[in-house]
User: What shape does this take?
Amino acid sequence: MLHSVSWASCLPLVVFCGLLSFNPAAKADTVALMDIVQAQCLSCHQIDRKRVGPPFREIAQRYAPGPAQETRAYLQRQIQQGSRGNWGAIPMPAQNRINAEQAQAIAAWLLSLANSSTKENS
Assistant: This one.
């Protein structure tokens, strides 16, 4: 089932992709990463609004103050193995289709949203 996503909620994602487009190899990796995020994550998460799971920006703001390498590793595990009780009663299922490298890239992108101030108008 496809969900409509507003342009404003995707702005940080678009900016991130645009910045990486200056490096052709990074561009291909980024496109693949964003395809994964769209296929695997956006059914439960949005950038600035709660859906089933918490907004990406809220996750980023919670975890960004920690040590970067350890925080990325933690989020990578949470993405791959799932989690329970960190954001309320609804658990996040394990994302078995996402490998370690992809999960680490998603975690890095996610943390980049912590300093982004673009918010969707509610």
In short: The chain has a mean pLDDT of 81. The longest helix spans residues 24-41. DSSP finds five helices and no strands in the chain.
